[in-house]
Amino acid sequence: MEKRFKIFIYREGEPPMVHNGPCYDIYTTEGRFIHELELGNRFVTSKPEDAHLYFLPFSVSMMVSYIYKPETSHVKHLKPSLGRFVGDYINVVANKYPFWNRSLGADHFMLSCHDWGPYASKANPFLYNNSIRVLCNANTSEGFNPTKDVTLPEVNLGRGGMTGLLGGPSALERPLLAFFAGGNHGPVRPILFKHWKDRTGDDIQVHEYLPIGLSYFDFMMKSRYCLCPSGYEVASPRIAEAINSECVPVIISKDYALPFSDVLNWTSFSVQVPVSEIPNLKTILQSIPVNRYVEMQSKLKQVQRHFTINQPPKPYDFFHMVLHSIWLRRLNIQISP
Known about the structure:
- By secondary structure, the protein is α/β, with parallel strands linked by helices.
- The protein contains twelve helices and ten strands.
- The protein has a five-stranded parallel β-sheet with strand order 1-2-3-4-5. A five-stranded parallel β-sheet has the order 7-6-8-9-10, with helices on both faces.
- The protein starts with 6 loop residues before the first strand and ends in a 7-residue tail after the last helix.
């Protein structure tokens, strides 16, 4: 991949909804990836005939920001607008270049960290069924296909970047068994709150809102395990936050295709708990032998670099891991000349 892989970016369209993306907050990975390619990364070619893949550089997050106005429009009107924009964009490049029609979109990819990324991809049946869709909302029960599509990690990055978010105390210097703080939404979190919210004196700390003066990241770094329940959708930035703070992630989700599963053995550095076992969380975590926990935390330090966002990118970081996942799926595509 390092020596061969070339991507052509269609130049059609203008910012802010094309060739642009959010570089901070919950949709960070969408914007950072788009911007890195747009800056002229070495994987990008200006010669479309030399490309292995063709990038559709629209940003669903930016579309939502600029098309949807809560005071004047209803959300039910937004999704059709997204679909029209994406469908029109594909029609433009399909009419101007031979590459989309040659493969029916199979050697093209889109990327979105917005919850509505999967919906936007339905604007064109070939985009949905043939193209590589790089999505944070990687829900296999809603059409995400891990053999064709790529899971984009969700990272909530502030203006300070990764500063102060990497590392933490050693395995045996963390007094709390487990921690979670976040909104009560989606199908999973209400169950978690029902059984574990605000239990005084417990070494499992679960809060909807942390009391004023307490630090979310301090709690993560004091905890051996960090609970990562799905919210509205299957993905959660808490998985990357847990990895970066060396707090073993406890993934409580259903139908979520975990990032980089082609090369990462998630069972070696995380715990996966079925939703039905939420009442037994404490028993499950306490039953893990200390040496097994120490081993998992040690593995976190090894995989941490794969979820780290660097500017410029460094080998094996978030950017290169996403590219590698895309490249692996390109290898499965046969294109007739």
